[in-house]
Amino acid sequence: MIILGIESSCDETSAAVVRDGREVLSNEVVSQVPEHRLYGGVVPEIASRRHCESIVSITDLALEHAGVTLDEIDGIAVTYAPGLIGALLVGVNFAKSLALAKQKPLIPVHHLRGHIAANYLTSDIEPPFLCMVMSGGHTHIIEVRSYTDYRVIGRTRDDAVGEAYDKAGRALGFCYPAGREMDEAASKGNPNAYHLPRPVVEGHPYDFSFSGLKTAILNLVNQSKMKGTELCIADAAASFQQTVCDVIATRLMAAAEETGYSNLVLAGGVSANSGIRARIEEECQKRGILLTMPKLCYCGDQAAMIASQGYYEFLAGNTAGSNLNATASLPITEALFDKNCPM
């Protein structure tokens, strides 16, 4: 079965063709990062306009590189939640039009489910397993019971870890998106140079809170300016990253112990962070836990992961009709579409 995937939830326009949920035939991405960097973050209206400009050509390119035509596609999968609403609507309406014109099944895919499915593209991992999803907008510990059945065990109560990286990085003088530069600087610094808070969410042992950690970095910068002292950027980045690693590893290992899972999976853009990958890998090796991580090219937003999850959603009968709409916020466990509505 060959699935065409469409992704437009934030600032990447992407189209991909994947066979049987595992074999990537093409995966094309147009990034808007250089333009949004001028503003220090994603500007939703600009993102929506750029998706409109790119989505047709990127889809044509994906089909061309896969060596297939739309007539040979068995289904069209599209990210419909969560994300920037204007950006999502571009992808959803485009996918609906293709599905209607070619009389193909329309398969709605939750963005976080797609991130988890990125691991299916580079490994033979199969559910059930425990997954740590880390991105600019999300931080979740999720029990993946099957390809389409999920239970949230822990989540952030305020800032997502990727958001904390971007905001702390901006305070330290790094360009948006700051995650990669923070990771590189951390590798050169002393992780014990600055003591930073490790917030605990009372009554929720697997939940996260990164707002205080972000604020602590802002305070370091402001205090340095007021006192006229020099702040070592590499040391601050290393201290920040070690704190993040401590918090994530502690909660993830505790969740694995309580649930009894011996196979863990990482997913999302922040799973590309070298420090986090190394720390969780180290903790898993100590405990004899099998760790699966996506290739770096599949950590960020791209359509191959949407096509992969779309394959499993289709097998589960989760297709939609012309009433499919986008939604900016939606738990991974829910669906907001009527699969009984005909196209």
Report on the structure:
With 343 residues, this protein is α/β, with parallel strands linked by helices. It folds into two domains: 2-117 and 299-315, Nucleotidyltransferase, domain 5 (2-Layer Sandwich); 127-293, ATPase, nucleotide binding domain (Nucleotidyltransferase, domain 5, 2-Layer Sandwich), CATH 3.30.420. Helix content is 42%, strand content 19%. It contains ten helices and ten strands. The chain has helices at residues 33-37, 44-66, 85-102, 111-117, 161-171, 179-186, 211-227, 233-259, 274-287, 303-315, and strands spanning 2-7, 12-19, 23-31, 75-81, 106-110, 129-134, 139-146, 149-155, 263-267, 290-292. A five-stranded mixed sheet has the order 3-2-1-4-5, sandwiched between helices. Strands 8-7-6-9-10 form a five-stranded mixed sheet, with helices on both faces. A hairpin with a 3-residue loop joins strand 2 (12-19) and strand 3 (23-31). Helix 6 packs across helix 8. It is globular, with a radius of gyration of 20 Å. The protein starts with a strand and ends in a 28-residue tail after the last helix. The model has no long low-confidence stretch (mean pLDDT 95).
